[in-house]
Amino acid sequence: MADENEDDEPAVELGEGEPVDGAPVARLASRLHWPIQKSEVARRVGDETVRTPEGPRELGDLLTDVEETYFESQRDFLGEIRAVTATGAVPTADE
Hints:
- This protein has helices spanning 25-29, 38-45, 59-64, 74-85; strands at 36-37, 49-50, 57-58, 70-71.
- With 95 residues, the chain is α+β, with helices and mostly antiparallel strands.
């Protein structure tokens, strides 16, 4: 049951700045079926731009830095991609 004292406002205010280029890599990964070969990932979504802490990059470029050739699960894939992109805040146009 919802608490009557809850605010109708969102918990986090969203800024009104420019949108960030690229898509979250997890969104692209959700389009695929697992397990999958790296070459098949590149064929299907390699030309998509993803958000990284260093700015937007093509997923295909990131895959060239990944040594694995086969991903058992989405979790394995995301771990490998995040290992080459690092983690952190994605810069916005104002930063």
